[in-house]
Known about the structure:
By secondary structure, the protein is an alpha+beta fold. Among the domains are: 319-451 and 465-538, Cytochrome Bc1 Complex, Chain A, domain 1, CATH 3.30.830; 566-773, CATH 3.30.830.10; 789-993 and 1023-1054, Cytochrome Bc1 Complex, Chain A, domain 1, CATH 3.30.830.10. Helices cover 37% and strands 17% of the residues. It contains 32 helices and 29 strands. The strands form five sheets. Strands 8, 9, 10, 11, 12, 13, 14 and 15 form an eight-stranded mixed sheet that branches. Helix 9 (348-356) crosses helix 15 (483-492). The longest helix is centred in the middle third of the chain and has 27 residues, at 612-638. The N and C termini lie far apart (65 Å). Keywords: Hydrolase, Metal-binding, Metalloprotease, Protease, Zinc.
Amino acid sequence: MTLADSSDVPVEPIKSVNDKRKYRSIKLTNGLTALLITDQDSDDVEDEKEETVSDDGEEESEDGESGDDADGEDSDMSVDEGDDENEGSKKPAKDSPSEKLSAAALCIGQGSFSEPDDIPGLAHFLEHMVFMGSEKYPDENDFDMFIRKYGGSDNAFTDCERTVFYFDIQRQQFYDGLDRFAQFFISPLMKQDSVDRETKAVDSEFDMSTASDNAKKQQLMGTTAAPGHPMGKFMWGNTKSLKEDPAANNIDIYERLQTFHKNMYSSHYMTLAVQSRHSLDTLEKWVREIFAPVTHNGKDKPSFANLESPFNNDRFYKMYKWVPIKNVHQIEVTWVLPCQLQYYRTKPLHYIGWLTGHEGKGSILSYLRKKLWALKLDSGNGETGFEHNTTMASFSINVTLTDEGLDHYQEVLSVLFEYIQMLRNEGPCERIWSEIKTIEDNSFRWQEQREPMDYVEKLCENMQLFPPEHYLTGEDLLMDYDSKVIAECLNCLVPSKANIMLVSKRFEESGECTEKEKWYQTPYNAVNIPDDWISQWADIQPRPEFHLPAANEYIASDFSLKEVEEKLNTEYPTAIVDTPQGKLWYKKDSKFKVPKAYIHVHLISPVVNKTALDAVLLDLFILILEQNLAEVAYAADVAELSYSFKPTDIGLVVKVSGFNHKLPKLFETIIDYLSGFKVDQDVFGAVKETLTRTYFNQMIKPSKLNREVRIEILMQSYWTVVSRRQMIDDVTLPMLLGWVEQFKSRLMVETYFHGNLLPQECKDMYGYVLEKVKCRVLPGYALADRRVVELPTKDSYVRVKTFNEGDCNTGITNYYQTGPGTLHMAVVNELLNMQMEEPCFDILRTREQLGYGVFSYHRDTCGILGLSVTVQSQTSTASMSELNDHIENFVKEFGKMVADTTQELFDTLIDTLVKLKRCEDSNMGEEVDRHWNQILTQLYFFDRIPKEITEIGTLKLDEYKAWYKTVMMANDNRRKLSVQISAYDKTPNEESGDKDTQKFKDKPTSVTSSGDTSSVISKEWTLSYESVSDILSQSGGRAIGIDDIQKYKDNLNILPVSRIVSQEKS
């Protein structure tokens, strides 16, 4: 039995006093549990027509209404704060009637653990298949088409013991969206031809995961599980497990899918969360009506809680050395404990992880940083199904090592075990547990709303884990201090029961990783942990540097909301200081009414980004600042205050946010460290080493390289990660210090203060910045005037090899440039992309199975508009020329759809876009981001969205059709750029070469020793171009091949600066 089964519904969940939503939990007669949420404001009047479904399945609109690249494994340092492009504004105008999307999420309490042993990945495959049409709505793409037609989105994922589906959509279409959604669980078609095609999609998704070290690590860990335990399953699925092996064993995959759906998608395994501005009564009526047909299989829910621990065996208690994709050194120590779900009120692993992951004085990372053995540490339990399920809970400490740290990895292990021994010696500390509880309580008390889809997705999972009263609180809040439970967990974290994983590219060079994991072919070597190490660690005594954290001085205690004069309660930011040295933009929060604030500071300097070397020096400056602040500011970080540094085209952005009570203290500390910047040779060397690896790890991602090449071609000046990697070897400490002095001596500042702050407080902090960094007048360098090249009227093609020889993943983006934009042109572009998104996915991904990642975008590159289509594929699927042909065929097919667009459909598209524009901010941060983007780009077009809504109302169907024909259809005036990242002719299971440590290891250097960087030249780390003759030969002279980006750009016109600030061209 799970905790969620321990109490009968209805019991209303405990909520924050700041939460204005209303909740109701119900249980249907078929056993499905639902949580209903209304975010209807007290003055909202529900239109009864919303509850009336029209004959064609679409709801009537209300009277009076007028007629949107992914691998998060490391930071994307080369993407500047003021990014070169966006996909259009979608946030609200406050003088327009506000809208909010409705959302639903359903969690099935079964996942990969439940799939049969002879078809690995079947649960994940079934998650894909239920999207492919139903008896009631038989069209294969009906659900996606309907959701996107009305401004929504959808997704799903499969975990060990849970499978989750979720979507959002405009409120007026929520009933119809919910009805289509329910068919996943009532009567999905899962046709034979769909099964065959979707196998390719799952295989493509698996191929993409072969470039993920996290996926490799998880699968390798699974090999250490006890035989027959579900933790050892291959849960992704691919062509081999879902097609080839079943065929060889005479298994009918289609029949097994039907059986698995019947057995596992049972109503009493399901928890549903829905959120909308409809009333609770309306939502309950709809949920009972729509989900009543979901069948109950009459069986008890399968449970795995009775299984023995999966990792209590000699295979687990070893040290595994393995070779990653990225150039990284890591050591991870993992222990396995009994399931801890029943202790959610105490959260012992959260408490222990909070201490082992601490970065302040007396911590593990503080010590390792001083030794220059590590710069980063992650600790705890990630709460994924693989890390915490009914059979076990894992606890890990993952340390990212420097080169020197890898040389001393045995000593690093001793440091970890010594610190844990210190925690055991000290025993559970109620003061620290209570401090964590206070921080979590404050966060919950003053929580702001999340996007509805994100919120219901999390809640439907929580409903599987916690009793109804704790649906909202069970995941986050600490409730009962229990020293015994904490001590029992600490006593499990002993060296003899640990799994050690040591990860490095060095093991590829040494050749010691001779074994291969079955599915990912990860090279590894499992060795016994020497007995003398275990004996030494058994009697280990903590070194004197280790101690518990001091009391946290950054925890807020003043939550009063401040009042200002009515004239300062403005709708948009106002400049309350405007001098040649800088500006102070201010907006007092009057909507969200929480004691929080956001402070953004843009330090603008002419020494930034003149060359690729300047970009590297700025990256180094930022990383070292973060290291210098890590220990002193960590207490603020855990107290729900945050800070960050980001590079821009013309400077450096500092962001500070959180509860306003202690925010000025943190802000002044950050400015002090920035203005008094110091670094020694050892820290400089360690950070430079880390940044070098970061550049390489970004370069090996095909999607990242695709974007970098495209932006380098389009922008007059842009420093890619490749160009930065060319320069970094030559950088010296004197060079950095000289550059920093130049940076600090030539600064102006633009700031934005938003939230629960008084104007004088803001002026005081602004003055502190001016005093510390000595801002001055910078004539002629105030504007971020970035310029874009004009593509030729012939189609341009560039094909570049990936830097990872072992990666089978490829990528293509076909970009169609419009030219300098106006507000009118921008909304036409955005409307076209909104109509294009679903057919793009359906045709290129679902029907043609070209790859897992397929999407279109509306591009605004420094005011120059365009549209793009991207396909992320694999070498085994199609050649680059074939992918280009498929995209071009889609462009033609979609052109017919545009040509056939009726006035009725056009009006629906218009209405959908307007409602998307009116979607209100869920929290203060979203409002801040929207205004800050206008300040950062120096457009100050704060009322852009109401102006866009007005402009949308002027669009004409004939103009819309003509626009697409001109921009994307092949013609004499089209400006197309195709960026293609090709892979080597290897399978994903072949070993990758370590370019970073082999091919480019002997790069010649040429350096200067001062702040002058103009003479530094590097000739390595260049793009590897491939011929596009296969395309050129078929183009009839209407195509250009690019084999040197700079030479290509030298022959192009540079477009004038384009600023979309009104209906007129700028």
